Amino acid sequence: MSDRSLYDLPRWVLAIGPVVILLAVFAVLFLTSPFGNLDAVDEASTLEILWMLTIIGSIAGIIPVAIGMLWFPFIRDLDPRYLHAFLAMAAGVLAFIAVEMTEDMIFDYGVNVENTAVAAAAAIVGIGGTFAVMYAASKWRQRKMADTERSGLEIAYLVALALGLHSIGEGLAIGVAYIDENPTLLMLLVLAFVMHNVLEGPTVVAAVARDRETPMLRHFAAMGVIAGGPVILGGWIGSLAHSYLLAVLFFAIAIGAILQVLIEVAELIRFDAEAVLTRVNAATFAGGFVLMFLLEDVLTDVLLEGWLIPV
């Protein structure tokens, strides 16, 4: 199917299509339970473990991001006012991730580091250093731009990078669950990450939708790998060297990146509109935050206390 014929599909198909695909993937994972037997992990070679975690990481990270990107044709034709609202929703998603990662960094990892001062220093350096480097790079890029138009593709790559850094934390959890031979927890994590990572797709492409020209397919593929691929890297790290201090540093880097990207998204909206904070933008920002809360925390609790993990 050509790009043009894709745009010619009915609007309701463009809106509902990714949801149908997501539900199909979710159903296949739940019904087949592909991670049901991890008894052979102890006897597996390091290469075999890394390969299996590559497959699991692709399912939990890259595939849902790619599914979310399928909303691009629907987002592309939105009125500028609603496109700004979609960007605000993407910012809400990022804000929730930053808040959640701060909580995880402190209470799940930081408190378990033997030297709390070192953990605090790693967090401060990770957040502050990443924010400063990305902010300086952003200002340099703006000065070097020949025209005054901001590139949504550049912002989309920054969003993908921030989400990718966050995805390392997801991979750490997957890697630890795999090495601990806990198939139920592993399945729970994969299902939860699939459900909420699908929102990372439209979060990435929302900035591109306001550009006049549609990027080449290779850009979408690259951004999908950047945003979801680090789940694989995190899984490798979690299986080979489970370090609380390393987790704190990775989480801090991701938080710093997200804070900078939030500024970039706000400036992107301001470039096209007089005001960033409107009623619609505020509502969709809150909606993105709440939706991620429902998918990440509420869904996980339901699965944990429900049929997947016996109480």
TrEMBL record:
<feature type="transmembrane region" description="Helical">
    <location>
        <begin position="82"/>
        <end position="99"/>
    </location>
</feature>
<feature type="transmembrane region" description="Helical">
    <location>
        <begin position="185"/>
        <end position="208"/>
    </location>
</feature>
<feature type="transmembrane region" description="Helical">
    <location>
        <begin position="220"/>
        <end position="238"/>
    </location>
</feature>
<keyword id="KW-1133">Transmembrane helix</keyword>
<feature type="transmembrane region" description="Helical">
    <location>
        <begin position="119"/>
        <end position="137"/>
    </location>
</feature>
<feature type="transmembrane region" description="Helical">
    <location>
        <begin position="157"/>
        <end position="179"/>
    </location>
</feature>
<keyword id="KW-0472">Membrane</keyword>
<feature type="transmembrane region" description="Helical">
    <location>
        <begin position="12"/>
        <end position="31"/>
    </location>
</feature>
<protein>
    <submittedName>
        <fullName>Zinc transporter, ZIP family</fullName>
    </submittedName>
</protein>
<feature type="transmembrane region" description="Helical">
    <location>
        <begin position="51"/>
        <end position="75"/>
    </location>
</feature>
<feature type="transmembrane region" description="Helical">
    <location>
        <begin position="244"/>
        <end position="263"/>
    </location>
</feature>
<feature type="transmembrane region" description="Helical">
    <location>
        <begin position="275"/>
        <end position="295"/>
    </location>
</feature>
<keyword id="KW-0812">Transmembrane</keyword>
